[in-house]
Design goal:
By secondary structure, the chain is an alpha/beta fold. It has helices spanning 29-35, 58-71, 81-85, 93-113, 131-142, 145-151, 163-170, 184-190, 194-201, 229-238, 257-275, and strands at 2-6, 40-44, 74-79, 117-122, 154-159, 178-183, 205-210, 212-213, 219-220, 244-247. The protein has one domain: Divalent-metal-dependent TIM barrel enzymes (TIM Barrel, Alpha-Beta Barrel). The protein has an eight-stranded parallel barrel with strand order 1-2-3-4-5-6-7-10, surrounded by five helices. A two-stranded antiparallel sheet has the order 8-9.
Length: 277
């Protein structure tokens, strides 16, 4: 098992947000991650200043590859908060065309740095609220299948659907190009049973966000919310999960970001080990 972290968790918050691209500190997170034995980083991409993000420029891509090689920290996944902030399946006409063109540009850029998984969050502003939204989304992403397969990439969906509905949704998409990002904290906040969820679609989970939340509440330190962590890890192991674990955990209130991720890294390792005993 490999443990990584969500970009930005090793530096101070941006404008008080729990998650946003760390413009000032993004390069410094590579050596910090190396020191913590975290060999994976999940990139974050916002709609604001999208084209300026280092991932989206040739010079930035070169720098990402350099830092990744120097410190042994791979960038294999990307959380596209931009898709949640400006969902292409909720607009039409030229607006949709422009957002789909951006999606294709993001896939091209991701391929340049070795990203395999591009996450589209179907939560909050990105939630699929109508059957039309769902139909448009499916139609648009299915057109990208061959492009994804050719690049060895997948689009992963994080959703607020219950177990049965998410199973039915993902079964409409071929496994060679599409999968699920399972967010432990979001499921806990929604009151879902992790046993039911992973039992329903565990074979389609390609990436896991490690997080804890209170029921109907916000992110809290790992182990203090409503997530049944033992059940989650046991169910993932039973499903044969062999993907990554990304620490998208609560922010350190004392600004000891490395200390917080170190504790959560160790908790994750222990939980995974215990699930196999």
């Amino acid at each position: 098992m490999e443990i990584g972290f969500m970009q930005g968790r090793l530096c101070d918050r941006i404008d008080g947000k729990i998650q946003a691209f760390p413009w000032r500190d993004w390069e410094s997170e590579f050596p910090l991650a190396h020191a913590l034995d975290l060999g994976l980083m999940e990139w974050t991409l916002d709609q604001e200043r999208l084209r300026e993000n280092p991932l989206m420029t040739a010079a930035g891509q070169t720098r990402i590859r350099e830092l990744s090689a120097r410190y042994g920290v791979r960038v294999l996944s990307l959380t596209g908060d931009c898709f949640m902030q400006s969902p292409f399946y909720k607009v039409d006409g030229t607006a949709r065309d422009a957002l789909l063109a951006e999606l294709c540009s993001i896939l091209d850029a991701s391929e340049q740095v070795g990203i395999r998984y591009v996450l589209i969050p179907l939560v909050d502003n990105g939630s699929l609220q109508t059957l039309e939204h769902e139909s448009v989304l499916l139609e648009c992403v299915l057109m990208l299948r061959q492009r994804l397969v050719g690049a060895g990439m997948k689009i992963l969906f994080e959703s607020d659907f219950g177990p049965a509905r998410l199973r039915d949704f993902i079964e409409r998409l071929p496994q060679d190009a599409f999968g699920i990002n399972y967010d432990i904290g979001n499921s806990a906040a929604l009151g879902f049973s992790s046993i039911d969820e992973i039992g329903s679609y565990g074979q389609r989970i390609d990436n896991v966000h490690i997080k804890d939340r209170k029921l109907n509440g916000t992110t809290v330190p790992l182990g203090t919310g409503n997530a049944d962590l033992a059940a989650v890890f046991s169910s993932l192991r039973k499903a044969g999960y062999s993907g990554h674990f990304i620490l998208q955990t609560a922010r350190a209130e004392d600004n000891d970001h490395s200390g917080a991720l170190s504790r959560y890294r160790d908790m994750t390792r222990t939980l995974w080990k215990q699930s196999g005993s």
